[in-house]
Amino acid sequence: MSATSPSPSRRGFLATTLSGAVSIAATQLATIGAAEAQPGKSRPDLPNIRPGTNTSFAPLKQIDAGALNIGYAEAGPADGPAVILLHGWPYDIYSYVDVTPLLASAGYRVLVPFLRGYGTTRFLSSESVRNGQPSALAVDIIDLMDALKIEKATLGGYDWGARTANIMAALWPERCKAMVSVSGYLIGSQEAGRMPLPPRAELEWWYQFYFATERGRLGYEKHTHDFAKLIWQLASPQWAFDDATFNRSAAAFDNPDHVSIVVHNYRWRLGLAAGEASYDDLEKRLALAPLIAVPTITLEGDANGAPHPDASAYARKFSGKYAHRVITGGVGHNLPQEAPQAFAEAIIAVDGFAA
Question: What is the total count of domains within the chain?
Fold first, then answer.
């Protein structure tokens, strides 16, 4: 997709414009990709797990990394191949509470950090701009890898986490062994974000326009948990999560920088808020919608209620070994938490791509 076309990160608009022939091609891609990506005999067999089996991590760790002191969960052998799992909005590290022990049991060193503005992650300086632009989040994870002396890792993510992983894979492929990305290619730019979409597609982004107003900022600050629960319900309409599951994640939104980071992220996308000059060169490169060459598996839930592109819209953005899988069973937007077995299997399979 060209740099002047609408950003694929504005999920959902392409599905209404693709022809029937392209849709058929996407179905074929999903079928072939899934067959190609099935774990081979040499890969470890994962124990079967039901979503919600686990409700906690080992005690969290903290480390100074770049502009932040990052809180993160860790599991698995310290000398195992590194996997970094990245959460979205409005979610947190508990999206991976079942995925993490599965991968640890397979010998991976699994790290699940809170993004800036979430959980126990804090800015080291009160003077730092509370910047939510996507490239800043990617730099945070590179800084985390540097602090932990991790040269290369397999990345997994959805929503903000998938976008962060995409940016890392595009700009620092030498640090990314392989990637699992829910909803595909989500790299965008301010230029693309300014382009209007058809009315029905714009409707799906109602919260983005809400955050563009001061009323929206105040409303999100006042009703953060209720707002997040509404997004969970809309984005995963068939996921019957209970209050305990939601409340474990909602605690992460009490971070003192959470509202500022979220509001800035969505305002930046529309060109209504400036980023920091230190990220300008990165944003120029991302505005070209670069190809991603690292081995990748993209995933999509069959009941994703959040706006998202059709797989055929982004398949050619992945120039390395690639496969796409549709996860069935009423799986929504928070795919790792709703279908942890499928997500963990995809991580192992894509790691095999890179081997």
Answer: 1
